Amino acid sequence: MERLIAAQVRHLRLAAGLTLAEMAARSGISKPMLSKIENAVTSCSLTTLARLADALDVPVTALFRGADDQREAVFTPAGAGGRIVARGTRVGHDYTLLGGLRGPHKRMEAHLVTLTERSETFPLFQHPGTELLYMLEGEMVYSHSGASYTMGPGDALQLDGEGVHGPQELISLPIRFLSVVAYSATDDGP
């Protein structure tokens, strides 16, 4: 952490066009101490961090920029998504998981849904979170909480997952759409 703060302090000081002496005068921190900070030889107290941030005219958080740069990503090559067995799978409905990070603050799942067979009975869904449907191919009527929406390629529908929803009528097959569900911090999400 000291190295990160050292690099940020030096970067911000130079970006502001300040010499070590000018920075010392602005912050009230001695030149030798500033040198130790910029060379990661010492740890800073919160008071010192606040004085550095004030002298650089930045929030204290700017001194930690980059501390959490390691972030996850999930890449799913074409055709490699995990097949999900869900309500409707037996009637020609295919659900493919495109990505879903796990752990704290990872509250979203994306599926590619493909409907290839007509059916008189459609599965209905109800779940926590907000869902976005984006039509890629085909045409269908989709219902949510008693309302009906005729959807074709390029159409989008955002809905509250707590409302009962699902396909109502398949007009033009095959039907392909993206389903992205976002869960809040309090939902029992992915």
TrEMBL record:
Molecular function via GO: DNA binding; DNA-binding transcription factor activity
PANTHER family on file: HTH-TYPE TRANSCRIPTIONAL REGULATOR, METHYLPHOSPHONATE SYNTHASE
PROSITE patterns: HTH_CROC1 (PS50943)
Record keywords: DNA-binding
Top-rank taxon: Bacteria
Domain HTH cro/C1-type as annotated: residue spans: 9-63
Record organism: Frankia nepalensis
Pfam families xrefs: Cupin_2 (PF07883), HTH_31 (PF13560)
A GO CC annotation given for this chain: cytosol
Protein name as annotated: Helix-turn-helix domain-containing protein
